[in-house]
Amino acid sequence: MPESTSAAPQQPGQPASQPIHAATHRHKPSILRRLFPSSKSSAPAPRFLRILNLTRQTEIGNHIEIADNPARRNKGLLGRTGLEPGEGLWIVPCEAVHTFAMKFSLDLIYIDRRHRVVKIRQSVPPSRISAALRAHSVIELPPGAIATTQTQPGDQLQLDTL
Q1: Residues with Cβ < 8 Å from 30, sequence gap 6 or more?
Q2: Do β-strands 137-141 and 87-91 pair in parallel, antiparallel, or remain unpaired?
Q3: Which are the contacts of 114, defined by CB distance < 8 A and separation ≥ 6?
Q4: pLDDT score recorded for residue 45
Q5: pLDDT of residue 15
Q6: DSSP tag of 152
Q7: Given this model, what pLDDT does residue 12 score?
Q8: 129, 96 in Cβ contact below 8 A?
Q9: Which of 45, 112, 119, 161 makes an SS bond possible with 132, Cβ 3.0 to 4.6 Å?
């Protein structure tokens, strides 16, 4: 027995209509879902670096998260309660950061495109703004990291992907 369809009768001069099958019909996401996709389902896994100060022969961090897309740069370290030694965030590109709504202080290392240190700021407390217009990116670290590694402007850094 032939399968029945509920297609409208064919008008003369028009192509035959195809039946709509539920299995092949795709629901189109709402405009809001297309404009603001869920960051949880579409966000790539975080990537990390090991950063060495070649000039001082010290390790700045061995678990530095890379923030190289708008979502990661905007979130930064917001929502965290601190950083452990060796942890940090490399924000690229970035010339300025703020610590509004932060719960802890940060050490900041601004670097140029060749990974040379152009500016440092130690123990920047919450509710502050810091900038280095010559910088291409900034590394956010736990307080004391700059002093421990003796990092200074002009030092050459090496960033190794893990």
Answers
A1: none
A2: antiparallel
A3: 156
A4: 87
A5: 54
A6: -
A7: 55
A8: yes
A9: 119
90 forms bridges with which residues in the sheet?
Answer: 66, 139
Question: What are the Cα distances from residue 12, in Å, to 9, 15, 16, 136?
Answer: 10, 8, 10, 66
Entry pTM: 0.74
DSSP E strand stretches across the chain: 48-53, 58-67, 87-91, 96-98, 106-111, 117-124, 129-131, 137-141, 157-161
Report which secondary-structure segment, H or E, holds 73: helix 70-75
Distances 10 to 6, 16, 19, 20 between C-alpha atoms, Å:
12, 6, 12, 15
117-134 pLDDT, tens digit each: 999 999 999 999 999 999
Structure tokens at 93: 């590109």
Judge contact between 4 and 36, C-beta under 8 A. no
- Tens of pLDDT, residue by residue over 57-71, are 999 999 999 999 998
pLDDT of residue 35: 63
Tokens for 133, please give them. Answer: 């217009």
Alpha-carbon distance 123 to 30, whole Å?
A: 45
Task: Please list, in sequence order, all residues whose beta carbon lies within 8 angstroms of the beta carbon of residue 136, skipping any fewer than 6 positions away.
Answer: 92, 93, 94, 95, 111, 112, 113
